[in-house]
Target: Iduronate 2-sulfatase
Amino acid sequence: MPPPSRSLLWLGLVLGAVCASRGPAAPGNATDPLNVLLIIVDDLRPSLGCYGNKLIRSPNIDQLASRSLLFQNAFAQQAVCAPSRVSFLTGRRPDTTRLYDFNSYWRVHAGNFSTIPQYFKENGYVTMSVGKVFHPGISSNHSDDSPYSWSVPPYHPSSEKYENTKTCRGPDGELHANLLCPVDVVDVPEGTLPDKQSTEQAIQLLGKMKTSASPFFLAVGYHKPHIPFRYPKEFQKLYPLENVSLAPDPQVPTGLPLVAYNPWMDLRQREDIQALNLSVPYGPIPADFQRKIRQSYFACVSYLDTQVGRLLSALDDLQLASSTIVAFTSDHGWALGEHGEWAKYSNFDVTTRVPLMFYVPGRTAPLPVEGEKFFPYLDPFDSVSEVPEPGRQTGDLVELLSLFPTLAGLAGLRVPPRCPIPSFHMELCREGRNLLKLFEDHGEEEEPHVRSNPRELVAYSQYPRPADSPQWNSDKPSLEDIKVMGYSIRTVDYRMDA
Ligand SMILES: *[C@@H]1O[C@H](CO)[C@@H](O)[C@H](O)[C@H]1NC(C)=O
Ligand SMILES: *[C@@H]1O[C@H](CO)[C@@H](O)[C@H](O)[C@H]1NC(C)=O
Ligand SMILES: *[C@@H]1O[C@H](CO)[C@@H](O)[C@H](O)[C@H]1NC(C)=O
Ligand SMILES: *[C@@H]1O[C@H](CO)[C@@H](O)[C@H](O)[C@H]1NC(C)=O
Ligand SMILES: *[C@@H]1O[C@H](CO)[C@@H](O)[C@H](O)[C@H]1NC(C)=O
Model:
């Protein structure tokens, strides 16, 4: 039994203090406020059963979708971790934060902007962070924006430090720092993986909150399918190589403006990729290795799905499924060989489009009745039944920016006001839309597909470059090296790049 984490010890103190005072700002009067479980996945594109992918085994996320409102056209504002997370967690565009890299803390270098968890904390919620929610490091002041955003110290899995070390057994029998890293979990340092630890921690926190007088906001940030693809090796069996196709457009398109392309340097640093002697920047990856990369990404998605399944099933066992909103999304997508790219770092749809769904008890699905299992754990290795239909879905163009006002609205908190221009001086405001209207129930006779007027809606994404053609730092230019800003303006039918 590991010693209780710092967050668990702190939580005891916080709950002790809260119980004495009881009185979160309850929305409405007769009902208790809803809790929030926000699941943020790292580098997950919508390659999921519930988004129509026939190959992927993601039964637990599909089950969540079947009880949720699912957004078919959700886009991140910048396809790289820290800027995207700062953007959607503060509800401001990258062009407002002007933090397009990993090296600055917004409170110091942009404005003292409130965050989603901070807003919930200030409204009486106990807020908790598990895993990668804010990007770690200086971009969140080496503290995941504590103490502003969180009631208790954020939790990071101890086995995270092995992610980039030599723990991948290669064909030569030696351990390497590889891109492809299926492991035997009992053999790796600490005998566990970061996402497993995060699930366990999150379940413990949920257990503590079960009897809490105040509502909670728990953010769980999963690491996979971010590279390296380090995952329990049995998940590879779900995707035999002969079943894995190449991307439909695996070549760098002729006539592509070179500024749009980036050389995916992070992949090239891995030992197994180095051994391929690829030419920089376009060097195609041999087709058989492309299949292996796609296989491992998909295996990571199924591994992630089991973690989401364990977490939701615990929520259910604790009888919290009828009082907790579950929001599920990712910081951005990832190119799996489309137009010759293997990365995020661009404005292409494959890197900007994200899964986004919200389960709202009693609203997107009926309330579970006492004793009913609402999110039973589903094993992706079990023979496949049909992927259930999403509960409801919408094709509206939405931006991840809208997470802030939408979560606030769904929980019954006052939706922050729209930001004026400029808004550097304003701590609490939002640039995203409040999507609440899309959750309105239109009665049974209407189509389950909710549509407002999609043609009026657009989603913006942007990506900076240090030069007009790919060079060593095109993936992640530092602020001082940025020379070009590319924009993508997406409507339902078109995308314009400028
Ligand atoms: C709750 O508020 C509504 C109107 O806002 C009011 O009609 C009702 O009496 C209130 N109920 C309680 C239990 O306070
Ligand atoms: C920034 O916001 C936090 C949280 O509201 C507040 O405690 C802090 O004093 C603010 N800092 C500045 C410099 O305004
Ligand atoms: C960032 O962290 C440092 C070290 O803990 C602290 O002194 C500083 O006040 C923090 N910055 C802000 C804006 O809170
Ligand atoms: C691989 O594809 C074959 C043919 O479509 C199918 O029968 C088999 O079930 C697939 N294997 C897995 C593990 O999905
Ligand atoms: C890569 O280059 C090295 C050194 O030039 C060579 O020994 C090796 O065989 C090459 N590997 C492949 C896969 O071409």
